[in-house]
Amino acid sequence: MLDRSESALGIVLRSRFYRSAFLSLLVAGIGVSAATPQFTLFLVRDLGTPLPVAGLYYVTNLAAPVAGFLVGRWSDRSHDRLLWFRICALIGSAGWFAMAATNAIWMPFVISVLALSVSGGSMAQLFAACRDELSRHPTRAENRVIATIRMAFTTGWILGPVFGSWFGGVFGLRALLIATAICVFAQVLPLGRQRVERYDAPRDVDAPVEKRRIDHMMPLLIFTAVCVLAMTGDTIKFGYLPIYMAEQLHVSDSLRGLVIGVQPLLELLLLPVVARLADRYGAMRAMTVGAILGLGGNVAYALSTSVAGLFLGQTLTAGLWACVGALGVSIAQRLYPEGVGTASGVFLSAIPLGSAMGGTIGGIGVAAIGLPHVFFIPAGLTSLSIVAFVILSVRERV
């Protein structure tokens, strides 16, 4: 066990694999986040997709949990954890190239289900490889190590939308999708030909060998479902908060961008803080606090009548997402230690699943109760997640 005083940054800098994983996530984060905010515009402007049909594109995120589970199971049977990381990256790159070449409305839907749903597995298996390395070389700073590596992806999501907006405006949206395909492929380059052997915990030779049954996965599945409840407000925020600011608060374009952009910046700053608190007080307790902050953020949105209230909401929501980013995948892996590839894939697929749920809830909620009161709905769902996190923290001792 490494000394308590050793810094997570020092551990990452001394490890060739951790340094490579950091660079890989940075490149992938920039590429994916550059295209994501512009993709609806691509569907409408370049393909002539009706706006209601374009909104249904995000329903294809429902394929992500299936792909994440299958890739994770195959990864848990492979000796080299990075094999499926590379396969997912190549499939994702091919998917984005195909997306750039598409000329029919139905094609992006098929490409998303068959290719882009698999692409997300690359990040999951990279974190599974990180868990293998941490199991092989334990440290009391493991939450901080994961958070440090995760900061690369968050940084990419800060830089990517700025790059995507400029690049798409200058060279066109199809060229932007090609650039995204190149970035998704380029994430494999920092790792070169490195291998990370799957870690198998030593077994007692006298202990019976048990098959991985679904009941062993129940804590993981429950935790993932609870996180989905806590994350539903994010899609509603990105979809409707700019409209609320523009049409009801009459906020300028620059100030709207500042309100939306402040959350990932605060999240980046909070990641190491959250990880340190988790190392001291426990990861599930920290997640519970994060959900409480998320509840406060949704209530702030719902009650806001000024930009100041929206900044407060963004600040509180950044706390929730810092907890999800720094701790979520680690908790999932601990809840299902016999299959960390599966655990990583299942948990990280919860993010697009939460996006699909949030979009559906937002559309129905805005029509029913309007803006900004629609945020009371994710506030109620987050309240349920707080209760569930408290129960899990008592029962699972994670």
What attributes does this structure have?
398 residues; mainly alpha; 17 helices; globular
Explain what this protein looks like in three dimensions.
Helix content is 78%, strand content 0%. It has helices at residues 8-14, 16-35, 39-46, 51-55, 64-76, 82-101, 107-119, 121-136, 142-171, 173-186, 214-247, 253-281, 283-303, 307-335, 340-348, 350-369, 376-396. It is globular and about 60 Å long. The two termini are 19 Å apart. The mean pLDDT is 88.
Strand and helix layout:
Blueprint: H1 8-14, H2 16-35, H3 39-46, H4 51-55, H5 64-76, H6 82-101, H7 107-119, H8 121-136, H9 142-171, H10 173-186, H11 214-247, H12 253-281, H13 283-303, H14 307-335, H15 340-348, H16 350-369, H17 376-396
Helix pairs in contact: 1-2, 1-9, 2-9, 2-10, 5-6, 5-7, 5-15, 6-7, 6-8, 6-10, 8-15, 9-10, 9-12, 9-14, 11-13, 11-14, 11-16, 11-17, 12-13, 12-14, 13-14, 13-17, 14-15
Distance between the termini: 19 Å
- Outline type: globular
Structural class: mainly alpha
Helix-residue proportion: over 70%
Strand content: under 5%
* SS element count, helices: 17
- According to DSSP, the number of beta strands is 0
Biggest sheet features: none
